[in-house]
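seq as requested:
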Amino acid sequence: MADRPDTHLPPPHASHTCHLSGDQVRQLSDDIEERLHANGMRVTTALRDLIDVLLHQHRPFTLQQLQHMPRLAERDPATIYRLVMKLRDLGVLRYFPIGDSGNYFQLDTPDHHHDYLVCTECGTLTDVPFPCVVQQLETQLAEQLKWKKLSHSLVFQGICPDCAQ
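struct tokens:
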């Protein structure tokens, strides 16, 4: 992976144009808090700040990137790590390891799915700009095989146009 001078910033998202509406953000925030309370977690200021960042910056992040976000930069990195792991374990965060680019986390938003392209040279993460063809298969598998809470993560790896030149 090539060195990036801005490793503390989220990677560029060339085709990432997705934004959650205010209503979606409020509904997701309420759903997450209910889920946390149901699992005995206190919603601390640090946790609320982390969830806020993830809701308003609707894209994948590494732990390092989260730790450098303005609302989280003053927090102890160990606290951010523990909170991210708890959210992952509760199924609030989608987790996907991407080779040398790192481990990424993104809010798992029902009925709002993203797949990604990742550059193996520079680490650029790009939202796939087409409907997910695996989504229909996932639905069929869940219905026919009676699986519950079935999900998938699809990440394509390759070399982006900038690095290919």
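Residues 1-16 have pLDDT under 50 and may be disordered.
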